[in-house]
Amino acid sequence: MEIIDIATIQPAGREVATFHGFEHGAGISFFVVAFGKGNGPRTHRHPYEETFILLEGEVALTAAGVTRTVGPGSIAVIPAGTWHAFTVSSEAPVRMVNVHPVPRMITEWAE
């Protein structure tokens, strides 16, 4: 058993903690995100699905050209190969977990 303090996988001053599964003998990887209003990653995609678990705040999530507002208590599944991005739309910061079902994350950026 391995217990990991999230603070140890979050660089100082950064808003994202990154868990690389291969570093811990795990078959998944994920981000623990705490972004403020207007922040979020630019358009990208993965060769596998990505699952967002929204805990607090709201994001404008765009996937395959369709934008939806997603709030706390929601789970969004982005299909493999789908271009997507999100931006925090709420005044309150977003807290979410973005799950990648692989031990090594692969990201292709649109720009």
Describe this structure in words.
By secondary structure, the protein is mainly β. It has a domain of 70 residues: Jelly Rolls, CATH 2.60.120.10. The chain has no helices and ten strands. The protein has a five-stranded antiparallel β-sheet with strand order 1-2-9-4-7, with no helix packed on it. A three-stranded antiparallel β-sheet has the order 6-5-8, with no helix packed on it. Strand 5 and strand 6 form a beta hairpin. The mean pLDDT is 96.
Which SSEs are present, and which pair or pack?
Elements: E1 16-19, E2 29-35, E3 44-45, E4 50-56, E5 59-63, E6 66-70, E7 75-78, E8 84-88, E9 94-100, E10 108-109
Antiparallel strand pairs: 1-2, 2-9, 3-10, 4-7, 4-9, 5-6, 5-8
Give a quick set of tags describing it:
single chain; 111 residues; mainly beta; Jelly Rolls; five-stranded antiparallel beta sheet; three-stranded antiparallel beta sheet
The CATH class of the domain at 29-98:
Mainly Beta
Task: Give helix % range.
Answer: under 10%
Helices and strands, in N-to-C order?
EEEEEEEEEE
Q: What is the CA-CA span between the terminal residues?
A: 40 Å
Radius of gyration: 14 Å
Major beta sheet, specifics?
Answer: 5 strands, antiparallel
Q: In CATH terms, what is the fold-level topology of the domain at 29-98?
A: Jelly Rolls
Structural class: mainly beta
Instruction: State the CATH architecture of the domain at 29-98.
Output: Sandwich
Query: What is the count of DSSP helices, taking H or I runs of 4+ residues?
Result: 0
Strand order of the largest sheet: 1-2-9-4-7
pLDDT averaged over residues: 96
Residues in β-strands, percent: 35-45%
Low-pLDDT runs of 5+ residues are: none
Broad shape: globular
Q: What is the CATH homology-level superfamily of the domain at 29-98?
A: Jelly Rolls
* DSSP strand count: 10
